[in-house]
From TrEMBL, chain A:
Chief place of localization: membrane
Any single GO CC term annotated in Swiss-Prot or TrEMBL for this entry: endomembrane system
GO BP term, example: electron transport coupled proton transport
Location of the NADH-Ubiquinone oxidoreductase (complex I) chain 5 N-terminal domain: 86-128
Localization: Endomembrane system; Membrane
Top-level taxon of the source organism: Bacteria
GO molecular-function term, one example from the UniProt record: NADH dehydrogenase activity
Gene3D superfamilies for this protein: 1.20.5.2700
Naturally occurring in which organism (per UniProt): Acrocarpospora corrugata
Keyword Transmembrane helix: yes
Annotated protein name in UniProt: NADH-quinone oxidoreductase subunit L
UniProtKB/TrEMBL annotation, chain B:
Superkingdom of origin organism: Bacteria
Any one GO molecular function term: quinone binding
Protein name as it appears in the record: NADH-quinone oxidoreductase subunit K
EC numbers on record: 7.1.1.-
Family, as annotated: Belongs to the complex I subunit 4L family.
NCBIfam families to which the protein is assigned, alphabetical: PRK05715.1-2 (NF004320), PRK05715.1-3 (NF004321), PRK05715.1-5 (NF004323)
Compartments it resides in: Cell membrane; Membrane
Residue ranges of the TM segments: 6-22, 27-47, 59-82
GO biological process: ATP synthesis coupled electron transport
Alphabetically ordered keywords of this record: Cell membrane, Membrane, NAD, Quinone, Translocase, Transmembrane, Transmembrane helix, Transport
TrEMBL record, chain C:
Entry's transmembrane regions: 6-23, 28-46, 52-73, 93-117, 137-163
Organism listed in the record: Acrocarpospora corrugata
CC per GO annotation: plasma membrane
Ranges where the record places region Disordered: 235-259
Name this polypeptide is given: NADH-quinone oxidoreductase subunit J
InterPro entries membership: NADH_UbQ/plastoQ_OxRdtase_su6, Nuo/plastoQ_OxRdtase_6_NuoJ
Amino acid sequence: MEPAEILSNPGGAIGVGWLMIVLPLLGAAVLLLGGRRTDKWGHYFGVLMALASFVVAALVFFQLLGFAPGERRRGVSLYEFIPGVADMGLLIDPLSVSFALLITGVGSLIHIYSIGYMSHDHDRRRFFAYLNLFVAAMLLLVLADNYVALFVGWEGVGLASYLLIGFWQFKPTAATAAKKAFVVNRVGDFGLLVAIFIMFTSFGSVAFGEVFAKAGAESQGTITAIGLLLLLGACGKSAQLPLQSWLLDAMEGPTPVSALIHAATMVTAGVYLVVRSGAAFFPGEGTASLVVTIVGVATLLAGAIIGTAKDDIKKALAGSTMSQIGYMMLAAGLGPVGYAFAIAHLISHGFFKANLFLGAGSVMHAMNDQVDMRKYGGLRKYLPITFITFFIGYLAIIGFPLLSGYFTKDGIIETTMEHNAILGWLAVVGAGITGFYMSRLVFMTFFGKARWDEGVKPHESPAVMTWPLILLAIGSVVLGAFLIVGNRLMIFLGPAVGRPEELPEFHAVSPVGLATLALVALGAAYAWLKYGRQEVPAVAPRGSVLTTFARRDLYGDALNEALFMRPGQWLTRLAVWFDNRGIDGLVNGLAAGIGGTSGRLRRIQTGYVRSYALSIFVGAAILAGAWFVVGTL
Amino acid sequence: MTTHYLILSALLFAIGGIGVLIRRNAIVVFMCVELMLNACNLAFVTFARQHGNIEGQVIAFFVMIVAAAEVVVGLAIIVTIFRTRRSASVDDASLLKY
Amino acid sequence: MGETVTFWVLAVASVAAALGLVFSRKAVYSALMLGVVMLSLAVLYAVQDAPFLAAVQIIVYTGAVMMLFLFVLMLVGVDSSDSLVETLRGQRFWAFLAGLGFAVLLALGFGNVVFAAPTGLAAVNQAGNVPSLAEAIFTRYVFAFEVTSALLITAALGAMVLAHRERAEAKATQKDLSRARFVAFGETGANPASLPGPGTYARHNAIDMPALLPDGSISQLSVNRHLARHTEELLEERSGELDASETPVAEITEGENSK
């Protein structure tokens, strides 16, 4: 089924849909411009703006439900910039509304959580300002109706990410990590920009409607090129191979940042881009889609392997995020049959990953900001609420039956298996590894003997931090079933991105599903044996070659350094040398030459009348000679 | 015949020029300048005769007058310089150097 | 024919004199050589139907301008002779080269021109050379004439201004000079009297004749040292007139007291 036509603005909540973007933006502006004066109520104001944006999103959602399915794509024109070429407007349709609800919903919960988490921080107000800025930019990204406005939102979230990762500016590691994230993202942005340029030259417009309408008439080569460039942009933003190196370093930021940006929303922008552009550029067949699936599978395996070797709880969760987004990319590359599964996994992942990150933040809060899991142990007695919500999130992510992950991840694996068996089995292996490292994380943290440092007294977090955990845990439980059973999400998203005519049947029990469960159980059992039953060593053991491979992030950083950083530095040095010797040499040499020449030339002025007379006489002789030769003067 | 006079004039002019460049005594330099002026006069008179035009002689006449005036002022300057500097060498007035 | 001979003789003479002017060491010799050149040129003017100019050349140029040169030479230092060493590097070489080149160029240029027979000034000089000159000067070139007169007046004034010396202090009177002489006598024993005058003899009373001291020897103070160069020869010549057998008394020289 093809996507529906985009209809006009019907007024009502959709008509003021731009409030979703403007309210958090206003929050950011007030808090940043107000400065220290707003410190006392800044955090409440930030939360208020996020909640207000959620309310508008909910109203828009309900208004959209009031229309017939074929009429659910609405364009809201805001500002005519260059008529016919660049107009600013919003596209309110099932896909963008789903994202908007996720962003504002999870975002508001994280805002509330941050009141407690950042209560001791001197710059809490600035934190909320940046969070609001992020929400505004992300909403612009998903609500835009043309690629240029999407790009503005894209850059905006990149900026917010940079500001938030480097929030504690006094930490050199944080500043470096922020820079790294920004630079690696830039590579992806370059891809997206070139794709937009090609779109503009080929189609004459960058609005979604126009581009998708004219894409059919364009040559396959151009379409593939645009698709691959869009994929490059998505890889940068979503930390997929080869642009994945920034995500683990981004854990330097405060934990709410990791939860909101690097788990639930920003890193999913890449998946949004692929799904939104799917109708024209990633239709399931063809080179671009194939590359998307390969990138997805490679990343899900890489992320899982990295996650097994990390002792830092946040870095392990970051590896997990990388891996889960790999699943989403894999699904998105399968074409219309996979879009809905990708988005379903995205939404439920948003909930349970945010849950896990906020839980980790709660643990860190209790353990004096310690992140090394080797210093945890036996915390389930002291942090009951955190433990229960974290455990629910853990079950969801490994795909325990009936929780969210079971429905969404299995959906992806089964769909992949029908498409391409090799990729399917690799995804199953990835699920097994997921089972292992997530179990390892839970057992090291909450079970076993206490391996704490001196003077650490773990205590449960305050209500303002535990209530969001509870709400997110509830979401982790029910969302998967809600979205997948009965193909609810696929039918809902049909008008937006298209869907196969025949809806897939959901098999409660299938061979592939059973195999997956078996591997997951194996992984969890192995983790229990190693980390639940045995003593966890205080210092990380040397391990094998594979362990080192995983600990060094699969040598991703080393590769980047060798391939790009070193040559880049040589190039810079060469340019500096050339500038100093070549260009400066030229300019200085010119000056020196003139100075030297004038120094020599001035000796003509000897002061003696007779030498001057000589020059006059010689000149006259030459003139006479010239006269003689020329004949007439 | 005319050519001979002209070549003589050129010769005297060149010798006067060399003298200006070689001699250091200011008065002798001045005398060489006078020699050059005389050579020019000879050329003028020769051409006056060649073309049958009296104006060549008129010009020579004026040259003589101007040369006389020039000698008056020039020698006065030399005398003044000599009084202050006690030297009549042309090379001594070399302050306008680099 | 006559003109040709005149020309060649005078040409050689003037070129030789010009070379002498440039290369002689003594400035007075150079002045005299210049005089020779000017006289030769005067004759050449006369040969070329310019009698007035010839006369003006002799009277004004040689007579007035050259004498002016000689006067200034006398003031400035008649015995100042140029050393032959050239101080500026390469000056001589380039000067000769330039001069020679210049002369060659001009000679070649003139040599290439083909002149018709000279028209001569016979037609123009019908009323006489001077009247035709006068007619040209006072009608067609009267403006230049007036300007040149102004120039002459300005030159005369300029020379007066330049050569004038302001007295910084009052002119010393005869009394002051006498007083100064006696003060010097008191301090250093210098002779306060004036210098002796030249000798006056029956057949020679020029100022280059020395006076005789009481003992018959020559007073060196009585004659200018430049002119005194000839004193020895003159004395020998005229030894008959003077009694030189007596032993000469010691000369009273300047600065010595007679004891």
